[in-house]
């Protein structure tokens, strides 16, 4: 066998098993699997008859299959703001008037969602001060958890995404919107009831100071039908 052909054969024998082993990364770890499908997208829409800035409620949610939930001591103080097709002031919610911590979540009426593996969130965020936006989840058993991952830029709105299985999680007291205990060793993301966000901080009012803006956001995962709900 010619020398060049021999070298190619040796390289293939060494590289191919590592590169093509099913379900295993080169270091032997399990691969995360295929990308998760889009489960839902939340778009905020203007509410007829109300000013540009107004308290957020169900009418601002474009998707009729999603239920809006407001939590924390100041959840009802979250505002909707923005204008359609505006790049400098897109449709978003704003926490500046939350005198105490506030949180928001949405739930699909017909399905839980499996966020294991490559389940992820993609969202548009902007913040002021030291605020950072964290994901929160309500599990099927009623437990609330908050993810260590945080986003927010003071300069502009940015679109970011993150895989939920990569984050550490901690118990969340949803009524007070504060964390409890230490990082959880195990979290089962296979059946999630509600998905949302909090920044765990009060707002500072209008003007620069401290608040969070959240534009549209998407959740990627596999639907798990609720009992009695039709499959979609």
SSE layout and pairings?
Blueprint: H1 3-20, E1 38-42, E2 54-55, E3 66-71, E4 79-81, E5 92-94, E6 103-108, E7 111-114, E8 120-128, E9 134-139, E10 144-147, E11 158-163, E12 169-173, E13 178-183, E14 192-198, E15 211-220, E16 222-225
What are its keywords?
232 residues; mainly beta; Jelly Rolls; 2 domains; seven-stranded antiparallel sheet
Summarize this structure briefly:
The chain is mainly β and 232 residues long. It has one helix at residues 3-20, and strands at 38-42, 54-55, 66-71, 79-81, 92-94, 103-108, 111-114, 120-128, 134-139, 144-147, 158-163, 169-173, 178-183, 192-198, 211-220, 222-225.
Structure notes:
The chain has one helix spanning 3-20, and strands at 38-42, 54-55, 66-71, 79-81, 92-94, 103-108, 111-114, 120-128, 134-139, 144-147, 158-163, 169-173, 178-183, 192-198, 211-220, 222-225. With 232 residues, the chain is mostly beta strands. It has two domains: 1-31; 33-225, Jelly Rolls (Sandwich). Strands 1, 2, 4, 5, 8, 11 and 15 form a seven-stranded antiparallel β-sheet that branches. A seven-stranded antiparallel β-sheet has the order 3-6-14-9-10-12-13, with no helix packed on it. β9 (134-139) and β10 (144-147) form a beta hairpin. The longest helix is centred in the N-terminal third of the chain and has 18 residues, at 3-20. The protein starts with a helix and ends in a 7-residue tail after the last strand. Mean pLDDT is 89; it is low at 10-26.
């Amino acid at each position: 066998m010619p020398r060049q052909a021999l070298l190619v054969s040796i390289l293939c024998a060494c590289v191919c098993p590592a590169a093509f082993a099913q379900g295993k990364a080169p270091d032997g770890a399990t691969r995360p699997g295929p990308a998760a499908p889009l489960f839902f997208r939340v778009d905020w829409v203007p509410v007829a008859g109300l000013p540009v800035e107004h308290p957020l409620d169900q009418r601002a949610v474009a998707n009729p299959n999603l239920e809006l939930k407001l939590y924390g001591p100041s959840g009802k103080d979250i505002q909707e703001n923005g204008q359609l097709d505006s790049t400098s002031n897109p449709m978003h919610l704003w926490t500046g008037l939350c005198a105490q911590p506030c949180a928001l979540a949405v739930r699909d009426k017909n399905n839980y969602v499996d966020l294991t593996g490559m389940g992820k969130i993609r969202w548009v965020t902007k913040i002021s001060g030291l605020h950072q936006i964290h994901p929160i989840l309500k599990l099927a058993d009623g437990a609330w958890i908050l993810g260590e991952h945080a986003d927010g830029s003071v300069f502009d709105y940015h679109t970011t995404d993150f895989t939920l299985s990569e984050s550490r999680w901690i118990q969340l007291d949803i009524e007070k919107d504060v964390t409890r205990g230490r990082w959880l060793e195990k979290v089962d993301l296979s059946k999630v009831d509600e998905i949302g966000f909090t920044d765990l901080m009060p707002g500072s009012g209008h003007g620069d100071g401290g608040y969070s803006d959240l534009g549209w956001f998407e959740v990627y995962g596999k639907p798990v039908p609720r009992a009695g709900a039709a499959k979609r």
